[in-house]
Amino acid sequence: MSIYKQEDELEPQQQQQQERDGDVNASSTASAAATALSFPPLTHASLEKFAFSSWYPSFRTLSIKSKIIALPEDFVDYLNADGVFIPGQTGISYALSDSEDDEDEESDMERLRAFKEGRLPPQQHRQRGEDSDDDDDDDNEAEQDDKEAEAPIPYFPGLELQITQAIDSLGGEVFPKLNWSSPRDASWIAATNTLKCHNVADIFLLLKSSDFVAHDLAHAYEDCADEAGGVVGAGVRQRPETVDLVLRKWYDLAPSMEFRCFVRDGELVGISQRDMTYYEFLAGLKDELEEKIVTFFEDKILGNFTEPSYTFDVYITRNRERIYLIDFNPFAQKTDSLLYEWEELLLTKEPLPLRLLASEAAGRHMHQPFSFNRYPKDVTDLSNGQTVADFAEAFYKKVQASAK
């Protein structure tokens, strides 16, 4: 749900709650107990309050500058389709030629106008470097027949133009998310290994590669306690009525200064370091950071977000003079509790102190985020935080045993 989630991001927590150091002593027993605890009921209506387009207008001045684009149904179908097929070029690229001739430049201008007005059909696209001489038509006839039998290339000229204009208005670099989740689990597939996007193709690739995005499109409501529209027998809704693409201005944020805050029944009961890396300097700032976050909550958040229980993520600038609101998430087990156990957050009678990783050893024990999205599940299960050498030996033994 969040940016990172994210945004923005519904993160798995079972693996990360197996080992804790310093202030936290987690165990599989505690994790099992948490599953039996009573969380505030999550309804369709309450979940939709966590959608970006629901909360951002009220907190615009506190958050990162963003643009919201309602996605057309044919693009949602494209995201749901099997495979990661990204159009080779955007409609704008298709609309323009490589020629420097004046006549071709005039044609480019006409094609660009047609593209902006949505008048340029897919079959009029001419790819860069493509030979258009009639003399070659016969030689390529068989190849063209094969292409005609293939599914049409995804083509979203109006959407691509909206995205391109939004990127330009946000400084040329953005990170994307949908209603709740950002494709943080797919950042490994990007050339920069981040969510930073410069163009339409960057965004399409991340969205098509993300399980978090797929969750938003098909399973976002599956944990809701009520039925869609309050109608008995209707079941839970499969997807939001409107799917939004959110483009947020890119900043090089310091992961050490990101924090998740937990609010239960209107009370801030916990604050956790968000990045599972040990930062020695944070210990000396602990009291100052906690005071600033509590003040931010009391002055800016409390009473302005309509749900009584929720989590919110903040970023504190390096000079510690400003706090940015990054995202809201449900106070629910599918939201990562980070350095807390949900049992603590649900049962505590008073606010818990800001929790930071206590040592480098604690950081080394943290599982790599989203590793389960990069490799086969049996491989990540087998690794269990081992060194490369230990993992290689264990994996070899498993392969040998399977071959018998």
UniProtKB/TrEMBL annotation:
Listed GO CC annotations: cytoplasm
Domain of life: Eukaryota
Pfam family, one: D123
Sequence ranges of Acidic residues compositional bias: 131-148
Chain intervals for the UniProt region annotation (Disordered): 1-30, 114-154
Family classification: Belongs to the CDC123 family.
Full protein name: Cell division cycle protein 123
Organism: Dissophora globulifera
